[in-house]
């Protein structure tokens, strides 16, 4: 099992893997055809309140990560994503944020890997 993250605005190097958009809002300027999505799982994204509070401020990322993981704890969409990760040879989490190090896909990737390891 492989879990990768990629910015949706970057042209995919290859389309192998199950591509899931994990943003609550559809990315500006991206058509559905250009996105090459297998699924849009907006319910797994941070709540509107958390997303607005974080505002992609790297100084808030540690707190964001804790709060977001708390939201994921009882989120059925996260369980759906975890099941996908365990079923797919390669899962690609797509996001639109400019910051490649401080976004929800980074948190999701880390949590999915940890939870997959815990279940095996």
From TrEMBL:
Any matching Pfam family: DUF488-N3i
Domain of life of the organism encoding this protein: Bacteria
PANTHER family: CYTOPLASMIC PROTEIN, CYTOPLASMIC PROTEIN-RELATED
Protein name in the entry: Uroporphyrin-III C-methyltransferase
Organism the protein comes from: Ligilactobacillus saerimneri 30a
């Amino acid at each position: 099992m492989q879990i990768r993250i990629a910015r949706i605005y970057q042209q995919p190097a290859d389309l192998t893997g199950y591509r899931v958009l994990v943003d609550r809002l559809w990315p500006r300027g991206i058509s559905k055809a250009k996105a090459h999505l297998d699924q849009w799982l907006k319910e797994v994204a941070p709540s509107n309140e958390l997303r607005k509070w974080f505002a992609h401020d790297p100084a808030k990322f540690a707190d964001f990560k804790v709060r977001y993981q708390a939201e994921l704890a009882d989120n059925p969409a996260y369980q759906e994503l975890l099941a996908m990760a365990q079923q797919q040879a390669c899962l690609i989490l797509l996001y639109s944020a400019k910051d490649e190090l401080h976004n929800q896909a980074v948190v999701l990737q880390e949590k999915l890997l940890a939870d997959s390891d815990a279940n095996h």
